[in-house]
Design goal:
58% of the residues lie in helices and 7% in strands. The chain is mainly alpha-helical.
């Protein structure tokens, strides 16, 4: 027998539907873990004191306002609850994005440490990318799609 004759090889072929299904399941699990984190964070211990004077001064100023800590807690909790449901996940991400930017900049510029927030910000960015179609109306205001042609092309015209 020649080389390769009579040998049956099995090739595992994953079609794009199976891969997309796996990605969707992974993103759903990631979203649920992220939602649980933000929903539960307000019930955890208060943030630790900071060794950097600028970071401590900033946090003392936030606490002195008497409204920022409850406001941030509300954003965390409502954003986390919204993330539990696929339909409201973009709203949850929108509620959590400003505090996330503040936390990252605070840790990097004032506290002089990255802390655990870099992986959390990465998860946030992944979920923002996943739900990016929900945010397109924010930067395409004034443009409306009219109809989809038989070839699948969308005609776009400016709003009057």
């Amino acid at each position: 027998m020649g080389a390769g004759r009579g040998v049956v090889t099995k090739v595992l072929v994953l079609d794009s539907h199976d891969m997309n299904r796996g990605i969707q399941v992974s993103l759903t699990v990631l979203r649920m873990i992220y939602a649980a984190f933000w929903t539960a964070i307000i019930f955890g211990p208060p943030p630790p004191r900071h060794s950097e004077p600028a970071a401590e001064a900033f946090w003392v100023a936030i606490e002195a306002t008497k409204f920022m800590v409850p406001l941030l807690g509300g954003c965390y909790f409502l954003g986390g609850v919204a993330l539990w449901f696929r339909r409201t996940s973009p709203l949850g991400l929108a509620l959590l994005s400003p505090p996330m930017v503040i936390i990252i900049l605070f840790d990097i510029l004032l506290a002089k440490e990255a802390g655990p927030w870099i992986p959390i910000a990465l998860i946030h960015a992944i979920l923002l990318w996943h739900f990016r179609s929900a945010f397109t109306s924010l930067w395409s205001y004034g443009v409306e799609a009219t109809a989809v042609s038989s070839r699948g092309q969308t005609a776009v015209r400016p709003r009057a």
